[in-house]
Design brief:
Elements: H1 5-10, H2 13-32, E1 35-47, E2 60-68, H3 69-72, E3 81-85, E4 94-98, E5 112-118, E6 121-125, E7 130-137, E8 140-144, E9 148-156, E10 159-164, H4 166-170, E11 174-176, E12 180-185, E13 189-194, E14 204-206, E15 209-231, E16 240-241, E17 245-253, H5 254-258, E18 266-272, E19 280-286, E20 292-296, E21 299-303
Parallel strand pairs: 1-3, 7-11, 8-12, 15-18
Antiparallel strand pairs: 1-2, 2-5, 4-6, 7-10, 9-15, 10-14, 13-15, 15-17, 16-21, 17-20, 18-19, 19-21
Length: 319
């Protein structure tokens, strides 16, 4: 009996085609669950500190990854570039980086494992940097609340370290904070203020911010009566002051004003214009630093020198 091979293939062909499809799918599903190892090549992109170019561009690293085939397919979203920025405060000429598995940006939902990274140690060379310690100045203004006065302002740390190209670092003698204002202060205060980096260019500063602190004290006004006025050294030409004692009003921190005595104040008369009968002297008050004072009145008229008594007449002699 003759067998028609063509008929055998065509008989029940939809069932046979479906069986073939499911067989292929079963093979793919089983293969996707088998452990597979994949090699990825990533380009290194190293960003040096500003103003310090690399002497040689870094190469590539090879990453060996193992996992199920279905999981490895998720690595299609893995970037082809491995980027790293060198800290801008790094000052040496050679920077080293030991690659860890955590440095490879694997997708969070991929159940795979990194078995090898080659090379694992990366070394790049760049222009050397210079380090220099400079003073930190404050541009912070403080406004005390009504009835108080600011007692000093401190900056901590008071110095900072500059890192950058030697020529740029050598041109900088000091740094300052950014401009800031603290208002309505009625007690101890502190604020963290950034250092102004705009004038520094490619130079980096350590630290990037400082702490500005201070205290305030209650403001006290006190009057001292009967303070003696001292005349300046010269120019009075025999004229004296119409008033030799005045009242002095002092303002300042309460503890310091309370500790003052009359002897702590010095009132000096300075001649205004030439010495004459209608002339006067301006009064200034010298006080310890941090205090404000004024004399009441703030000027004194001059008093003409006494007129000398006429010489007695000589009696005519006897001849």
């Amino acid at each position: 009996m003759r067998i028609d091979v063509g008929q055998l293939f065509l008989r029940n062909w939809p069932i046979k085609l479906a069986a073939l499809f499911f067989a292929v799918m079963l093979y793919v599903a089983v293969a996707a669950q088998q452990p597979v190892t994949q090699t990825l090549t990533l380009r290194l992109a190293i960003e040096p500190p500003p103003g310090r170019p690399l002497h040689k561009a870094p190469g590539h690293v090879t990453v060996l990854i193992s996992g199920k085939g279905s999981e490895l397919m998720k690595l299609r979203s893995l970037p082809a570039v491995l980027a790293k920025t060198i800290p801008d405060t790094f000052s040496d000429a050679v920077w080293q980086w030991r690659l860890q598995t955590s440095d490879i940006p694997l997708p969070a939902n991929a159940d795979v494992h990194i078995t090898d990274i080659s090379p694992s140690d990366v070394e790049v060379e760049m222009d050397p940097a210079s380090r220099k310690e400079v003073h930190v100045g404050s541009r912070v203004s403080v406004q005390a609340d009504s009835g108080y006065v600011v007692q000093g302002l401190s900056v901590l740390p008071s110095t900072a370290v500059l890192v950058g190209p030697p020529k740029n670092v050598a041109a900088i003698d000091s740094v300052t904070t950014v401009a800031a204002h603290i208002a309505s202060v009625s007690g101890p205060f502190f604020n963290t203020v950034p250092i102004d980096t705009n004038p520094l260019g490619v130079v980096r500063v350590i630290p990037k911010e400082v702490r500005v602190s201070g205290e305030v004290a209650a403001l006290l006004q006190r009057s001292f009566t009967g303070v003696v006025v001292t005349m300046a050294a010269s120019g009075f030409s025999g004229y004296s002051l119409a008033t030799e004692r005045v009242v002095v009003e002092v303002w300042g921190p309460q503890p310091r004003v309370q500790a003052l005595t009359r002897d702590s104040l010095r009132v000096v008369a300075h001649l205004v214009g030439p010495a004459r009968e209608d002339g006067y002297a301006r009064l200034t008050v010298s006080t310890p630093a941090g205090l404000t004072a004024r004399a009441v009145p703030d000027s004194v008229p001059l008093k003409a020198p006494p007129t000398p008594a006429p010489a007695p007449k000589r009696k005519p002699g006897r001849g």
